[in-house]
Amino acid sequence: MTKKTDEYSTKSYVPYHSPFDPCPPLQRKYYSTPPNLYIGFQPRNLQQFSPIEALKKGTLWTPFYDYYENPYKK
Amino acid sequence: MWAYEKKLMYPVKVSTCNPTLAKYLTEQYGGADGELAAALRYLNQRYTIPDKVIGLLTDIGTEEFAHLEMIATMIYKLTKDATPTQLKDAGLAEHYVSHDSALFYSNAAGVPFTASYIQAKGDPIADLYEDIAAEEKARATYQWIIDQSDDPDLNDGLRFLREREIIHSQRFREAVEILIEERDRKKVF
Amino acid sequence: MNKPLPKEYYTQLEEIQAIDFTLYELALYLDTHPSDSQAIQQYNQCAVYCKQLKAQFESTFGPLQFGSPNTNQQEWTWNSGPWPWQI
């Protein structure tokens, strides 16, 4: 049931909806799987952001950058 | 010892006068997975961890205090000019009657900070696994706060903090690797 | 009411925050990669540059770091605001 969305670090699934559940079904439930789960021990010479860009992004290393936005926002 | 630097780690900005967001942010001030808990956890664990990872715990623990100051700045800015009525409308009446607009180490629901939020097992693997979990929980908390917030400037600062949790988790995972493999870095690369 | 800070305060401070952040990121990386000599070299360059920027800022706006010289001979400026959370 896991489906990749356009952003690779956001996954989603559709929870089972019973006819006896009172709330209208949420289409999808989302969760985050950031890059640190995939990279392993950081290899040498990873690509870097410039200092000012790194500050904005929250990391020096481009492969670790993971932008987050509310996935339920339309 | 520690020496203060008269600057924030990141230029925190808040664009709307919205004390409700301050209430949510309190979760990361004095909550179970908040920055205070993180700083105290790492700086305390470092006395009983193998030498190879003491530096990492020291540096990350120190950074957590910089994050705590960022969260405090956000809360301060969101509440400093709020009237008692505005605070009441934001669900902060209970906070107000006890603390006025002073910051207090509690979670978003007002439960005071407690040392039982943090663990020090003395087993390096158990402690580092707790640290990894703590970073992932803090990351998730930032996500849920961003989901509840429509302040673009505030979210910008919160995204910075969320990204830091990712990097810290990465470094703790590497620390586990170092301890379980005892690998000589020169041989690996 | 204090005077608002000049624009240069914010731009210079942000530049320091950026270099300091890079330095810090390199430090965390080196904590788990202690024999990456290229990263050590970058760290050292960064450290020198950061020191220069801070000295420059402090000569205009007063001490940023505890222990820095108080360039104003008449007044102790360390405890004068605004403080980081106020700006």
UniProtKB/TrEMBL annotation, chain A:
Q: What is this protein called?
A: Spore coat associated protein CotJA
From what organism does this protein derive?
Jeotgalibacillus marinus
From TrEMBL, chain B:
SUPFAM superfamilies the record matches: Ferritin-like
Q: Which organism is it from?
A: Jeotgalibacillus marinus
Indicate the family of this protein.
Belongs to the manganese catalase family.
Q: Name one Pfam family in it.
A: Mn_catalase
The superkingdom of the source organism is Bacteria
Q: What is this protein called?
A: Manganese catalase family protein
CDD domains listed in its UniProt record: Mn_catalase (cd01051)
TrEMBL record, chain C:
List, alphabetically, the InterPro entries matched.
CotJB_dom (IPR024207), Spore_coat_assembly_CotJB (IPR016571)
Where does the source fall among the domains of life?
A: Bacteria
Which Pfam families does its entry note?
Answer: CotJB (PF12652)
Cite the Protein CotJB domain residue spans from the record: 11-86
Q: Which UniProt keywords apply?
A: Capsid protein, Virion
Name used for this protein in its record: Spore coat protein CotJB
**Origin species:** Jeotgalibacillus marinus
Q: What is the lineage of its organism?
A: Bacteria, Bacillati, Bacillota, Bacilli, Bacillales
